[in-house]
Design a protein that fits this description.
The radius of gyration is 18 Å and the shape is globular. The two termini are 33 Å apart. Helix 4 links the parallel strand 1 and strand 2. Helix 1 runs parallel beside helix 3 and helix 3 packs parallel to helix 4. It has 182 residues and is mainly alpha-helical. The longest helix is centred in the C-terminal third of the chain and has 28 residues. The protein is built from 6 helices and 4 strands; from the N terminus they run H-H-H-E-H-E-H-E-E-H. The strands form 2 sheets. The chain has a two-stranded parallel ribbon with strand order 1-2. A two-stranded antiparallel sheet has the order 3-4.
């Protein structure tokens, strides 16, 4: 999944999802069945014939999610898929993404610069160095998933966020200094 929605504006929602199946050698009936199922799971079934310009940002990102899931991947790679969205839409899509992934059995690699998003979605967080990008530490997220949201254990989430910030703070400050010097 891409950071920007990467949807083809001349294709409908169903057509954008179908794009992912075009070179998989599936029959028409199986393609249609998969597309219908994934559109239902992503709450887009009633928008199957809509075009991207007719959708909100959150709905466009759901199309990207549907397109990624329709091929039934074992691993889903997501590069900041929620960064282009407003805070409310991001919150709703995080919940939806968790529910969708729980139903697939797929593993996910989720790239984000947002510590709260990482804590909310991850089982483990790999903290990378700046340049060259190397894994500095892998931090397990031991807070039960249901306690990571708004009504959850805010203290535990804040403690983990503070720990992660301490791991990246020095490099983040160096980046800011470079920007000032430029």
């Amino acid at each position: 999944m891409f950071q920007d929605f990467a949807l083809l504006p001349w294709r409908t929602v169903a057509g954008n999802v179908a794009l992912a199946l075009e070179h998989h050698g599936l029959g028409k009936a199986e393609c249609e069945e998969r597309i219908a199922a994934v559109l239902a799971r992503t709450k887009l079934a009633e928008f199957a014939q809509a075009y991207p310009r007719q959708l909100s940002g959150g709905m466009r990102q759901r199309v990207g999610i549907a397109r990624a899931l329709v091929v039934e991947p074992e691993i889903l790679f997501m590069d900041e898929p929620l960064s282009a969205l407003d805070a409310q839409t991001r919150e709703l899509l995080m919940e939806d993404l968790l529910a969708l992934l729980d139903g697939t059995g797929a593993a996910a690699v989720y790239v984000t610069h947002n510590l709260v998003e990482a804590i909310r979605l991850a089982d483990r967080i790999a903290v990378f160095s700046r340049r060259p990008g190397r894994v500095r530490e892998i931090v397990p997220v031991e807070i039960p998933r249901k306690e990571r949201g708004e009504s959850g254990d805010a203290r535990a989430v804040a403690e983990l966020e503070a720990r992660l910030w301490q791991l990246i703070k020095r490099e983040a400050l160096a980046v800011e200094r470079e920007r000032i010097d430029d």
